[in-house]
Amino acid sequence: MVNIGLLGDISAGKTSILRLFVKYLKVGDIEKIEGGKKCTIVKTDFSGEATVPRGAKEDSLNQKETKTIHPNRVVFREDSSGKAHTIFAPGGDRARSVIRMGIITISRIATQIIAVFSCDRPLEKQFEFFRDVRFFPDNIFVCINKIDLIEKDAEKKVEEAKTKITDFFKQRKITIKEFFITCAESVEGFEDVQTYNDRTAEMILNITTDI
Ligand SMILES: Nc1nc2c(ncn2[C@@H]2O[C@H](COP(=O)(O)OP(=O)(O)OP(=O)(O)O)[C@@H](O)[C@H]2O)c(=O)[nH]1
Ligand SMILES: [Mg+2]
Question: Is the distance from the beta carbon of residue 183 to the nearest atom of ligand 1 less than 6 Å?
Answer without folding.
Answer: yes
